[in-house]
Amino acid sequence: MPTERPSLTPADDPRQVDPIGFLLLPRFPIHALESLRIANQNAGRRLFSAHLFGGDGAPGPAGNGMTMSPERAIAEVPFCPTVIVCAGNEPIQHITRGLLAWLRRLERHGALLGALDTGTLALAAAGLLDGCQATLHWEAIALFREHHPEVRVSEQLYTFERNRMTCAGGIATLDMMLHLIALKHGRDLAQIVANGFVHGRLRRDAEQQRVSVDDALVDPRLGRIVRAMEENIELPLGARELAAQAGISVRQLQRLVRGRFATT
Fold it and tell me: Does 206 fall in a domain?
């Protein structure tokens, strides 16, 4: 007798496992799954189950060269309450009509749809990001705007709007997953999972993906001083007020500015 596969339909009992589907397009990143495991481990029960889907169900390469076998082909998945499209360096080549039709069917049935990295291009190609704010890796934003000028896209870590979520990939994948965990099971559990990853604080969606070289080299105290000066150009702050912004003494302020800018 064949083994019965777990249902991917959400149960009415809130204590039942919440299925999360990951659609794996070739060269997909593999950052998201561990967050669900750590959430389950720290909750003391299974809150989430992870399910891997593929376009045709055949094994495919991850971005790091590993081969992973999907649990099911998308044709075998009539519905899953949450599906996240995972794509990497080949964002357009594997977007098929069948895949787009499947995503639209999920949307019509009320699924929460998300994307990691260039997976955002698949959601946009399906017409599922119209009127939504979206993001993806900063290196692919120019390509995205060329193909989908109708979608508002910005260089932020992740977005949650209505029943859509997108992220920049990389470590921002964890930020998006932490936000999803917080929405479903509370911020305390999300922070515990972040601590498990030695990730520190829960980062906000609107935080930027990149830090300029200049910003990275500047002492954070100087950053606060410069921002305070820029925000008070019409009524400049005095040295004592600027020092207070940086949490240092006026003498320390003078040394800091002189050492960085060779001026008082």
Answer: no
